[in-house]
Amino acid sequence: MASFKGNRFLAMLLERARHSWMFVAFFIGFFLFWEYSIVWFDIPRYILTPPSVVIEKGAADLDRLLYYTYVTGLETTLGYAVAVILALPLGLAIAFSSILKRTIYPFIVCIEMVPKIAFAPLFISWLGFGLLPKVIIVFLVCFFPIVLNAILAFNSLSEELTMFTRSTGSGVWRTFFKVRLPAALPQCFVGFKYAAINATVGAAIAEFIGSDEGLGFYIQIVTGNMRPDLAFAGIFFLTLLGMCLFGMVTLAERLLIPWHISIRRAK
Fold first, then answer.
1. Which of 178, 224, 228, 234 lies deepest, with the highest CB count within 10 Å?
2. Pair (30, 76) in one structural domain
């Protein structure tokens, strides 16, 4: 039995490797081109730093980079989690309430049109340079894509399917959990993933505007000191943080809706 599981796991790894080789080859080629193009085109090191130097200098400043990654990661995770917890029920309520559709929904659309970063100086002036204003900015960046996609998701169930479930004698709650919620989840995950992509952007820009720690603060300081090597190291950790969040959302999608066609085609 253990041997069977081991063989199955090995087969899964080989299958993943078979599908990922182009991705890996592209990035290896990209970084090789970056490394040698600086020599070929005689680009000054204070403008663009080779990846080998970024790795060397980043490793020398690893402790500070890891701590600032933790700070930005905390801001990102808290803001994203609060956005999901509040946006999903609100989207559900708006989808099923004609009053909320005429009042709250137009207001949300209007706020979505405003760049959220415009609020950052206000929150920082009101709340200081601590954790809370950054969490609020991340929340705002993530909240609106989630709530708008949730409204679309819960409004997308066909009337024929709704009438069929009612004809079988299913109650409201049973219909919701067995039909409406599973049918809405694929569209909801569109909002979750879009918000995950932008969560670290909101945290970093909030740190640019006013902070004394975090990866956004770090990139701003080292860029001001003409250290593009350390700036690229900070950007790498910021990218890694965003990829981890997006990967967790994608994993949750695979676990919750393995039956959806987008998941089956990705396998």
1. 234
2. no
Is the model's pLDDT at 42 over the cut of 90? no
Question: What DSSP string runs through 216-267?
Answer: HHHHHHHHHTT-HHHHHHHHHHHHHHHHHHHHHHHHHHHHH-TTSHHHHHH-
Residues 13 and 81 in one domain: no
Whole-number pLDDT of residue 267: 55
Write down how long the chain is: 267
Residue 163 has pLDDT above 80, yes or no: no
Write down the pLDDT at residue 156.
Answer: 77
In a domain, 204, yes or no: yes
In three state form, how does the secondary structure of 178-210 look?
A: HHHHHHHHHHHHHHHHHHHHHHHHHHHHHHHHC
Are 90 and 27 within one domain?
Answer: no
Whether the pLDDT of residue 72 is over 50: the answer is yes
Distances (CA, A) of 53 to 34, 119, 138, 217: 12, 37, 32, 21
Residue 86 belongs to some domain of the structure? yes
Torsion over CA: 191, 197, 200, 206 (sign): negative
* Closest C-alpha to 73, from 250, 251, 253, 237: 237
Looking at every residue in the chain, the average pLDDT score rounds to: 84
Supply the range of the domain harboring residue 146: 60-266
The answer to whether the CB of 216 falls within 8 A of the CB of 231 is no
How many domains does the structure of the chain reveal?
A: 2
Q: What is the pTM of this model?
A: 0.84
